[in-house]
Write a structure and sequence with these properties.
Length: 203
């Protein structure tokens, strides 16, 4: 079999090429199939080349998780519109989160498998925190306007996050289709903000 030619890569370009290949492998075969040697073969570099960027498979997995959290934070930041009314603002942010989650289910699994590990880097820990910023800020803003109950903003944001992540998990397990998970977000947010208890003016 002909030997795949070794491609010249700029230092930063090789890291990105390896991460892109790793994400494709993750999508197609799962995390167990990740291998630095196979990634080297896929991008056409020597088997030792990935070692310049990732000392082992765990370092590669951490880099994938970091990439995922940074991408999610960027999308959430772009989706947040502080000038919108509370329900519309939260709905847009929630829809963005769930859409990201159902579109990147395999990557999300890697992200959350590393999220609570005490040995993760400060860079990864900061990236994790960056995905909660908008939800906590929505709670703070709403409390200041008297639109939401008092209480620790982080705790209230955790309730919101649990509902959204649960919806994404249902989609990953097949209980909901990805399309239904995203389409149901307005109703979910409405129930989160208004509660499930029947009100006197409702029949």
């Amino acid at each position: 079999m002909a030997r795949m030619p070794v491609r010249p890569y700029h230092h930063g370009d090789l890291r990105q090429a390896l991460l892109a290949s790793a994400e494709r492998t993750l999508l197609e075969k799962g995390v167990a199939a990740l291998s630095l040697r196979e990634l080297a073969r896929d991008v056409g570099v020597s088997h030792a080349a990935p070692g310049r960027h990732f000392k082992d498979k765990q370092a590669l997995v951490d880099a994938l998780a970091l990439t995922g959290f940074e991408r999610m934070a960027k999308e959430l930041t772009a989706a947040d519109s502080p000038d919108l009314p509370l329900e519309a603002r939260l709905t847009e942010l929630a829809r963005t989160y769930v859409h990201f989650a159902v579109s990147n289910a395999e990557l999300l699994e890697v992200m959350y498998s590393r999220k609570h590990d005490p040995d993760i880097s400060e860079q990864l820990r900061a990236a994790v925190d960056g995905t909660t910023t908008q939800f906590v800020q929505i709670v703070i803003d709403a409390q200041e306007r008297g639109e939401m109950i008092p209480g620790a903003p982080w705790t209230i944001a955790l309730v919101i996050g649990a509902a959204l992540h649960g919806t994404a998990s249902f989609a990953a397990q097949g209980t909901l289709t990805p399309e239904a998970a995203v389409a149901d977000i307005p109703a979910l947010v409405h129930h989160l903000l208004n509660g499930l208890k029947r009100r006197e003016n409702e029949q």
